[in-house]
Amino acid sequence: MRCLGNSKWSENESTASGRDVTLDALKGLAAFLVVLGHIVTYDTEFHRLYNVIYSFHMPLFMFLSGCTVVLSYRRNEGSDAAYLGKRFVNIMLPYLIWAFLLPLLSAGSLSKVNWNAVLQKTFVTNRMFWFLPVLYGLIVVYLCWQRCRNWLRSKLPGFREDERAGFLPDSLSCVLVVGSIAALMLLTGYQLFRDIVGFAIPFFGAVMYMEHEWIHRLVYRKGSLVAALVVYGLLIGRFDFDTIAVTTSLLRMILGMCAIVVFFQMFVKLPIPGLVIRPLSFWGALFVVDLYFAYTGYE
Hints:
By secondary structure, the chain is an all-alpha fold. It has 15 helices and no strands. It is about 75% helix and about 0% strand.
């Protein structure tokens, strides 16, 4: 199953490079929107544009991350522990290096760094490059989901023959593993757990999109596009990112999922010029973009 659909352009490009160029292009677009969002953050003249960008750019990036995790896990030939170790080197090691190196570079000397504040931001409030530990946490949750869904399917053999029926144990597994993280969030108040739960919807939406062909097809139907545009148009006027509330977070997830349908259909079905796609895909394929995204993406 290709990640983004039956686009001939996408198939040819991904075959030549070993990567899904359209997926990388969408990552590049998400990173660009983060930069643009932070440019207009403090300008009241662009507050409406700011709300539009912040209504979907993080759910979009988390959805794309979910697609990438599924693809990388399918290519994994070792154990789950080896896979987590590899992801730790790719994600958490740069995170830890930058978390302690940047304050040092900014201060100019060890004595000028407020290390208590650095430790607080890194390990407690999750404000230092927050996206990377959230992504790694979601990968851990994804592996727990894999084990949970395999166990449920082994107990319910009838669900293995029917793809649509298989959605039931898969979705139930999502509820169980994310519910466990939510329980840890309530018991500890730890911000990382809160952030993982907050972005579980787009991440596991991507997992379901990758695992179930009927969901994959549903994303590209004309009715889905019309519904997404209508819902987004009706709700965007009620969204204000600066309003801190549970309803704001839920509204953001709904708007984000609508935007995902629109962007996925646009990038697969429209003849977007290569002069636009290739620079975006190049940017999206660079790991340094993820680091920059994490550094600038304070929510």
